[in-house]
Sequence to fold (327 residues):
Amino acid sequence: MRKTALITGVAGQDGSYLADFLLRKNYRVIGIVRSRAPGTLWRLKYFNIHHRIKLVVGDLADVKNLKVLLRRYQPHEIYNLAGQSSVAESWRNTNKTFEINTVAVVQMLELLRVYSPGTRFFQASSAEIFGDTDSVITEKTRAFNPLHLYGTSKLAAHFVVKNFRDQYGLFAANGVLFTHTSPLQVDFTVAKTIARGAAKIALGMASAITLGNSAIVRDWSYAGDIVRAMWLILQQEKPSDFIMCTGTSLPIKSFAKEALRCVGIEQWEKYVVSDPLLIRKNDTKKMSASSARLRRIGWRPEISFKKLVKTMVEYELIQLQQSNGKK
Fold:
């Protein structure tokens, strides 16, 4: 029997990679998008799958629409990847952040409980729920300490999933996502800034990459690898929560160093500038975790750190060259 998957945030980085992955596994994919406006579906068009997905314009806060979708499509799996993911925006728009990141999760799980209790649910949780810690994070870590409202909203949703799982027996799982990126990443992320900056330097369009605190440590995963893990989590016999990372952490400056090497620059320090205005007061300084449990269920990252950086820089080079050619 052909399975049906519903993906919220299908037009985003993770959503587009996941939709492509599931289509190749012969799923029917239903995707919720905020708009069909020109430019919003470019990631799906990158994979040439926009015409193979049933796209539904909707808002996660619209309970009636979600109810209709559940009853109409009876999805075997739901991947909740939509959310307000900007730390800065979480301070500017507190209500909207919690409405999307927390309340919407409560509403979806309540609808599943009533109308589709057999549906398997994946929640995109976040490493930001832990905040700063010197220890290596595992599924047993309970030292939750979010440093901003984005992290707090995701922590609340994380426990909502666990509560519904324990109380009602729903197959609901949290995937605690550490930093993962790709050429399709959003512009405000540091990985995208570095990759594009290195490409601009190579093309003579810039003289340096401007960053905040380049000593911040992150675990850098490839989004295409991470969505495979999402699917694998929902194929298990019992629902549970998983840490999603490579298990290797490196500082932001290592990403910059590798990106500049990709364009032939070895003395990378000369091309990285620190701007104090870009340093957030409550930014998580270090994220280090173990992917051991995820590996025990058969997952392995296929793209190395160096290949990930190279892929992103090459993508930005092509985009900038094409953009210049159009002018």
Q: What stands out?
A: The first helix runs from residue 13 to 24. The longest strand covers residues 120-126. The two ends are 50 Å apart (CA to CA). Residues 49 and 178 are 27 Å apart (CA to CA).
